[in-house]
């Protein structure tokens, strides 16, 4: 049995979750305890000095949270994971473990809004500089790397444009420079893509989204492949003695587990954005049905994207599974099951316009009317719920921008982002159809 390799669906249900030894509980129990009893004084001393592995205090580790960490690490094919209170917390502890004042990060410019402000404002204020690369060409990332660069960062599939990252190209660029490739794989989930198989070293998720899957609970996770050489000279904080742990060295003492141990024993200890056991339990329920839900999300996304693409009222659809998407070929390679269920589309404003300005104003109004007319899809700022979600950036997240600025930001005034849910696809289409009719005055 130990030789047998369990499949993805089996691991989604079982990894990290052995029945409770004392009670026989089959589901992972919620260990609602801040702290854990020491055997004796020596045991306590060993745990604190990291001479022994075990539970101390739930800011650093908790058995329910550990089950979630082990399960996601198993699904990603990593050696371990550290869970956090949110996806942003997972990003923050990763950047703060990798880089300090005077250091530099190379990142794609196509990132989640919160990630852009974390890198561009908060980390910059702390002395960590980021170069945002606008092209998806790995050579442009190579040119941006400096002596003090500590990571190459990208999302595996961008939102809302559906751009698929060239992971193998970026991995080669990062590894030639001696830095890890760090990816945000939130929209992919390990069911659709395992970035470690394509050269990523660190994989981050907002577990809040498809992994949790029901729009109820925030959480994040950092998974490590365990193959990066932290002793290459670029990462002194990994190889120099750690004062607060009696001079141990993360890389020398913990080897391939060094970075994850640093995340847990230093970042969670000192900063404290830990996942709580109730949240870990709720998120575990979602992970158990991840494969079945993602199959259904993808099937619905395909039906909705194809329906939209064939509608004369629609000007564009950004789902990379459509053969006219610029990243269709790359999506076939990295996402053989399909490139997720979050994408965007635009509705053509009806009528004739005597200027671009007039057309842009009309496009914004059409997007606004469309979103207001939807009856089933929920208008909110989230993705990866079981329900269909929509957002019109021009009147919400990007409302302060002029139509021209919106175009420059790659967010056309008419752009509607959709996260296709698990409803009957005929109902999602019925809803889009009636809202398009209300917004454009035209029927299909
Ligand atoms: C939502 C999201 C995040 C942030 O995650 P939270 O759990 O909301 O903190 C990061 N990256 C991507 C791609 C996301 O969709």
From TrEMBL:
GO terms for molecular function: cysteine synthase activity; O-acetylhomoserine aminocarboxypropyltransferase activity; pyridoxal phosphate binding. Keywords: Pyridoxal phosphate, Transferase. Pfam families: Cys_Met_Meta_PP. GO terms for biological process: cysteine biosynthetic process from serine; L-homocysteine biosynthetic process; transsulfuration. GO terms for cellular component: cytoplasm. Its cofactor is pyridoxal 5'-phosphate. Coiled coil: none annotated. It comes from the Bacteria. InterPro entries: Cys/Met-Metab_PyrdxlP-dep_enz (IPR000277), OAc-hSer/O-AcSer_sulfhydrylase (IPR006235), PyrdxlP-dep_Trfase (IPR015424), PyrdxlP-dep_Trfase_major (IPR015421), PyrdxlP-dep_Trfase_small (IPR015422). The modification N6-(pyridoxal phosphate)lysine is found at residue 209. Belongs to the trans-sulfuration enzymes family. NCBIfam families: OAH_OAS_sulfhy. This is O-acetylhomoserine aminocarboxypropyltransferase/cysteine synthase. It comes from Candidatus Microbacterium stercoravium.
């Amino acid at each position: 049995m130990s030789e047998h390799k369990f499949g993805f669906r089996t691991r989604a249900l079982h990894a990290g979750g052995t029945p409770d030894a004392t009670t026989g509980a089959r589901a992972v129990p919620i260990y609602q305890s801040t702290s854990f009893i020491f055997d004796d004084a020596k045991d306590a001393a060993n745990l604190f000095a990291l001479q022994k592995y075990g539970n101390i205090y739930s800011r650093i580790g908790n058995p329910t949270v550990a089950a979630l960490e082990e399960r996601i690490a198993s699904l990603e094919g990593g050696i371990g994971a550290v869970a956090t209170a949110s996806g942003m917390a997972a990003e923050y502890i990763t950047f703060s473990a990798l880089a300090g004042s005077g250091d530099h990060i190379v990142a794609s410019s196509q990132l989640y809004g919160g990630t852009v402000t974390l890198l561009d404002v908060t980390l910059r204020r702390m002395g960590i500089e980021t170069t945002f690369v606008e092209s998806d060409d790995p050579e442009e990332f190579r040119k941006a790397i400096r002596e003090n660069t500590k990571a190459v960062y990208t999302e595996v599939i961008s939102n809302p444009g559906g751009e698929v990252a060239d992971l193998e190209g970026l991995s080669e660029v990062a590894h030639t420079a001696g830095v890890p490739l760090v990816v945000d794989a939130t929209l992919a989930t390990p069911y659709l893509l395992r970035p470690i198989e394509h050269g990523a070293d660190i994989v981050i998720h907002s577990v809040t989204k498809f992994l949790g899957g029901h729009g109820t609970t925030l959480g994040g996770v950092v998974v490590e492949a365990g193959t990066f050489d932290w002793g290459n000279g670029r990462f002194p904080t990994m190889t120099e003695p750690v004062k607060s742990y009696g001079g141990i060295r993360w890389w020398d003492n913990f080897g391939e587990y060094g970075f994850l141990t640093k995340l847990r024993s230093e970042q969670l200890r000192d900063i404290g954005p830990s996942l709580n056991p109730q949240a870990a339990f709720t998120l575990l329920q979602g992970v158990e049905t991840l494969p079945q839900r993602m199959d259904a999300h993808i099937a619905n996304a395909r039906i909705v994207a194809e329906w939209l693409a064939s509608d004369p009222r629609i000007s564009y659809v950004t789902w990379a599974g459509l053969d006219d998407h610029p990243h269709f070929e790359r999506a076939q390679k990295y996402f053989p099951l399909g490139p997720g269920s979050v994408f965007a589309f635009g509705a053509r404003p009806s009528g004739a316009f005597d200027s671009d300005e007039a057309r842009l104003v009309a496009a914004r109004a059409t997007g606004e009317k469309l979103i207001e007319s939807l009856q089933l899809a929920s208008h909110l700022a989230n993705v990866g719920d079981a329900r269909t979600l929509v957002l019109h950036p021009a009147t919400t997240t990007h409302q302060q921008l002029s139509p021209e600025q919106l175009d420059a930001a790659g967010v056309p005034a008419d752009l509607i982002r959709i996260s296709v849910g698990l409803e009957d696809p005929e109902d999602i289409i019925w809803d889009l159809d009636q809202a398009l009719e209300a917004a454009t005055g035209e029927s299909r």
